[in-house]
Amino acid sequence: MKLAKQYNLYVLPSGSGVRMAGGSGNAKTTEERTVKFIEILRGLKPGTYLFVDHPGLDTPEMRAIGHTGYEDVAHDRQAVTDVFTSEQVKRALDELGIKLLSYADLKNASSMCDAR
Predict the structure, then answer these.
(1) Per residue in 3-30, pLDDT tens?
(2) Could you tell me the CA-to-CA distances from 68 to 46, 56, 71, 78, 88 in Å, in that order?
(3) Would you say the pTM of this structure is higher than 0.85?
(4) Which helix (H) or strand (E) holds 50?
């Protein structure tokens, strides 16, 4: 919290009602991850959810990152980007009526609640 205040970063307050959404589990390929992500979306109940992942691009810079047990960071991060930008996911979001929010949206909504 001290760093968040120092750098004016938004930290989701506890009790905000925002729930965490699950990850892609053991899905390996982009196709498997896309199917799993859409399954997660279809299983959500009404409310606000936070889905945290690490999109990135498969570049030489990203290929230089990794550690024992997680050597293929660039491929993994590219798969996340591919899922988030896939036409199948976009269609599922539209069909399900899911509205995407940014951290700024959450911060503004939280500020409005605090002002009441």
Answers:
(1) 888 988 777 777 788 888 877 778 889 9
(2) 39, 20, 6, 19, 33
(3) no
(4) strand 49-50
